[in-house]
Specification:
homodimer, about 240 residues, alpha+beta, Jelly Rolls, six-stranded antiparallel beta sheet, three-stranded antiparallel beta sheet, about 45% helix, globular, DNA-binding
DNA sequence: CGGCCTTTTGAAAGGATTCAACAATGGTGG
DNA sequence: CCACCATTGTTGAATCCTTTCAAAAGGCCG
């Protein structure tokens, strides 16, 4: 009895110190529920470039991202790729309609996840309805941001896409809390290109032009500083007065 | 008591004769649960072009589409529009994160819906967990088809987009069950253009070219027949050998 | 330090857009 | 019931922007 209490406490503490919890599916849970979720979860690590889920294959696992960035992508038969989004700590991964992954998820850099059996998680829904509530909420959120991205792909100009990307990920990819905020991109130009629906060369040229104009500063290919936030936001929203 | 039974039976029959039920959120429910759902639902009609939900406004209603087609769209400040999708009988509409509509939903042609108070529906989740299960399932489905559409917008060529559109909606928009299947488009060229991320002129030119090649037949601007399904599917998937 | 991969830059080509005009459609009222 | 009008759809020509292909520069790891 005494032993079990200590054990529970230990598990709880593990979640308590989890930096992703505030944003994650578990944010809605109290201590006791957290312990139940812990029973079915364990930590797992992925190396840079590792495949977490492969499009078309079946998987019985679902994941909470604890640390690192994940790239979601889909391929056309001839190799054309779209990056539909990126996942960061707190994001959930792995819901399917029929057990078959609808998308490929790969680690960018080192990734730490909290892995669970999908069946076991679904089993907990009966006991902890909050869990399914929260998951529906998160899925609706993904759906909405997906629509934002459709607007970007269907109607925004190159500059608008780039500005939207930089602003959207600025806080997420910030190196430290100090100003000026350096955006540390974990992903390659090719990932940004496939995310914004253009080519790498176009990305490169656009960033060069923005740097030329003094809108941004390119410390290195993957370290960018936004110099003029106001104008950058105007560009992102298509309100640029040029 | 006797009266109440008859009343319940009448309500159940209303659902029983609903053509949308098989695909809708209510597909998972048994007779008794259907009656409970009926308690909070009522039929409503929208005229062509009528706004069902407006982006940015708040709404306490959610809807099941019973008949007709609905256009989901989003605007940029300067009027650029993206149509993120179309809803057909059985589809659900109205989930939000904070009560504010993330998207505009408008009737294309006459639309019949089954309207509910969001709060009341959420209230039923406790009593009928299947309902929330099904709603999560439908939302995941929307998320996945949204990613398909991102691939289309980001990477597919004009012809591929058009072919994908025609094939995807062929069964949905078919005039009768007979062959050859005539696709009766409820939406205007502008809607298709904003859905495929191109201009109306481009849509018009692409359809004309496809008709020229014998891929399709244009009976009238809104009535199309696919003549070569095999090639059309190849084009849609980017496997065209040309 | 060398080699490989990523990123950048350049020049030419291609495809969708833009702007303009015309044709067709379908709903309305005389 | 038909003619008219406003809306919707089509066609043409020039322009613009991104892509494509090619090559050089830069960065990173062994």
């Amino acid at each position: 009895m005494r032993q079990e209490q200590e054990f529970d406490a230990a598990i709880t503490i593990r979640c308590m110190s989890c930096g992703a919890r505030a944003r994650a599916v578990c944010s809605a849970l109290d201590c006791q529920e957290l312990v139940r979720l812990n029973d079915i979860a364990h930590t797992k690590y992925f190396k840079p470039g590792a495949c977490i889920l492969a499009e078309g294959e079946s998987s019985s696992s679902v994941f909470n991202i604890i640390n690192g960035s994940v790239r979601l992508s889909r391929l056309l038969s001839d190799g054309r790729r779209v990056v539909t989004g990126f996942l960061f700590p707190g994001d959930f991964l792995g819901l399917t309609l029929d057990g078959t992954n609808s998308i490929t998820a790969e680690a960018i850099g080192d990734v730490e996840v909290c892995r669970m059996e999908r069946k076991k998680l679904e089993g907990l829904f009966v006991e902890i309805p909050k869990l399914e509530h929260r998951l529906l909420e998160m899925t609706v959120g993904e759906l909405i941001s997906g629509r934002d991205h459709m607007m970007l792909l269907a109607r925004k100009t190159l500059r608008e896409r780039m500005a939207t990307f930089l602003i959207t990920f600025e806080n997420q990819l910030r190196e430290s809390d100090e100003e000026p905020a350096v955006i540390k991109l974990p992903m390659a130009r090719a990932d940004i290109a496939d995310y914004l629906g253009v080519t790498v060369e176009t990305i490169s040229r656009c960033l060069a032009a923005m740097a030329e104009e003094g809108l941004i500063q390119l410390l290195s290919p993957r370290r960018i500083v936004i110099l003029d936030h106001v104008q950058m936001e105007e560009i992102a929203e298509g309100e640029d007065l040029d």
